[in-house]
Structures are given as structure tokens and as C-alpha cells.
Amino acid sequence: RSEIPDFINKAEMPNYSNLSEPLNNEIIQLDTSNWKAFRYDDLFNIERGRGPRKQDLENGVVPFITSTDTNNGLIAYTNYIPCHNGNTISVNRNGSVGEAFYQEEPFCSTEDVHIFNPKFKINKYIAMFLITLIRKEKYRFNYGRKWGIDRMNNSIIKLPVKNDGTPDYDFMERYIKSLPYSKNI
Questions:
Q1: Concatenated DSSP letters for 46-99?
Q2: CA dist list (Å): 57 to 43, 64, 91, 119
Q3: pLDDT tens, position by position, for the chain (185 residues)?
Q4: Which residues contact 53 (CB under 8 A, 6 or more apart)?
Q5: Cβ partners under 8 Å of residue 144, min gap 6
Q6: How far apart are CA 118 and CA 65, in angstroms?
Q7: Is the distance from CB of 184 to CB of 19 less than 8 angstroms?
Q8: Angle (CA) 84 88 92, round 5°
Q9: CB distance 51 to 64 below 8 Å
Q10: Residue 30 class from Cβ within 10 Å (0-12 exposed, 13-18 middle, 19+ buried)?
């Protein structure tokens, strides 16, 4: 008969009861009637993914992103020097077309992913707002109709705007922070 080890009896379990809490308690309603259309190339510099080939990967610490629809696009870590900046959005042009993820850290990728380098100050909350809208475009593209750089540049995204007609990034951030579970982003 074995006894329970002492370290198990002394272990403290975290309290997960507040996981669903929002980051702020603001109640924000979405009213899309006044949103304005923007071309992607007005908001982002879009570049083709680049990095080592999957079969050439060696273990390391640099995230390697590909066109999967899970795990933030991450399939491995490599020892290659990062090819892309962090604080960007990766969008699949092949495979799981239209899947989008926020990449916080510098990374490498396959050519099946395009990188959206923002022309504005972005953070993970603004990125989550934009990613949701980018993913809404999935149905337009598939294996027979790829979402390449030219099509991405010419694609349209509707966004909330300030009085001067520019995108309201502050609203986007506040909205995401008001959602349940936003404390965990």
C-alpha cells in the first residue's frame, strides 16, 4: 500500500473561478451601420511568408508558423533567425485558407502564410478584433480560388470609425476587453 506523497498534500491549486471575467466592465454594443470599408493594403503591408522548409527544421526557440487552423498556426520551433517581426497577423493563403492568428513574437513561416504588418499601432486586443473579421472571409476562398497577396491587398474589411473617418482602434480594443474571458488573452 503506497501513501500519498507529502508534496501532493501540500500542493496549492489555483482558483479558476474567475476565468470568464472581462478585462473591463464596460458594456459595449456593436452597431455596424456606420462602419466604413477599408482595403487591406491601406491598413497593412502584406508579405509572403518565408523561412526554412518544414523538412529542414531543427529544434530551437523561434516559432515556426504554417497554414494550420490550430495552435495559433504553430507547428514547431526552429533555430533559424526569425524572418518576420512579432506584433503582426499571419493569414493562411493555402490549406486552412483565411485562418488568421496574432503573432506576438518574431517568427519564421512557410509560404502558405502571408504576414499582415500593420501600418498602425497594434496590440493583441486590436488584433483579436481584426482577426475575427479577417476569418469571416474564409468562405470566399478555397483550394480552387487562393487568397494570394494581390487578392488580399484588394480585399475589403469594414471597421468602426472615428468622426474623422479613420479606423477606431481604441473602440476595437475596448470592445475586446469588455468580452467574457478577455482577462485571459
A1: EEE--S--GGG----SEEEE-S-SSGGGEEEEESSPPSB-SSEEEEESSSSTT-
A2: 32, 9, 21, 31
A3: 578 888 888 888 888 778 888 888 888 989 999 999 999 999 999 999 988 777 778 889 999 999 999 999 999 999 999 999 999 999 998 888 889 999 999 999 999 999 999 999 999 999 999 999 999 988 888 767 778 889 899 999 999 999 999 999 999 999 999 999 898 88
A4: 110
A5: none
A6: 18
A7: yes
A8: 85
A9: yes
A10: exposed
Four-CA torsion 135, 138, 140, 146, nearest 10 degrees: 110
DSSP bridge partners of 107: 84
What does the CA dihedral 50, 52, 57, 59 come to, rounded to 10 degrees?
Answer: -70
Q: What pTM value is reported for the model?
A: 0.88
| CB distance 44 to 156 below 8 Å | no
Q: Distance of alpha carbon 172 from its chain centroid, rounded?
A: 14
- CB 180, CB 20: distance < 8 Å: yes
Grid cell at residue 39: 482595403
DSSP alpha helices (H): ranges in the chain? 6-10, 40-43, 124-135, 149-154, 169-177
